[in-house]
Write a structure and sequence with these properties.
The chain has helices spanning 7-15, 19-41, 44-61, 71-88, 115-127, 131-142, 147-154, 158-180, 184-187. It folds into two domains: 7-92, Orthogonal Bundle (Rna Polymerase Sigma Factor, Chain: A); 115-183, Arc Repressor Mutant, subunit A, CATH 1.10.10. With 188 residues, the chain is mainly alpha-helical.
């Protein structure tokens, strides 16, 4: 049975120049980090580019990581900052596909919803939320972080996080209803 090396040990080895340890950290956190970047940028290809930039920043600044917070929180903060900076940059601007109210993405016939379809519709709904709402929902529900941890990562105040959670849940339901209509019950 393989044991998982703690983040702190990998960070220490990466600080000492161990590229394999840094690679292990990247492998461990690339998927959740990509999810955060996509929630802000709304485009997987752009999020992958931004994630590369974020991991390069982490690589160059890991020596200054003081371990006052969890490595994941520090990393997610860099991913969030890099994503918001990219969002502001003209080279990352892109028009997104729009759906008419009640139009189901990629389907006109009601069918029993498969798990991969459920995931697709949840992702589409998240992509249609504001960047702040999508980010906070992902951190809270998908990464299972508490409000203080979200505040540390996003630098949002706790009241803003609570508002984003409340509005995000309401807006998520509206977006899901627009995407799948009455089948929204199958998603929940």
């Amino acid at each position: 049975m393989a044991t998982t090396v703690p983040d702190s040990a990998l960070v220490q080895r990466a600080k000492e120049g161990d590229q394999q340890a840094f690679g292990d950290l990247v492998d461990r956190y690339k998927d959740p980090s990509l999810s955060l970047a996509v929630s802000i940028l709304k485009d997987t290809a752009l999020a992958q580019d931004v994630l590369q930039d974020a991991f390069m920043r982490v690589y160059h600044s890991i020596g200054g990581f003081r371990e006052e917070a969890a490595f994941s929180s520090w990393l997610y903060r860099i991913v969030v900052n890099t994503s918001y900076n990219a969002l502001k940059s003209a080279r990352y601007l892109k028009k997104t596909e729009t759906l008419q109210p009640g139009q189901v993405y990629g389907s006109t016939q009601p069918k029993p919803m498969k798990e991969e379809d459920q995931q697709k519709y949840v992702q589409l709904a998240l992509d249609r939320l504001s960047a702040d709402e999508a980010l906070v929902l992902r951190l809270f529900y998908l990464h299972e972080l508490q409000i203080p941890e979200i505040a540390h990562i996003t630098r949002f105040g706790k009241p803003k996080i609570k508002v984003c959670l409340h509005r995000g849940r309401k807006n998520m339901m509206k977006k899901l209803e627009q995407l799948v209509g009455k089948e929204v019950k199958d998603l929940l």
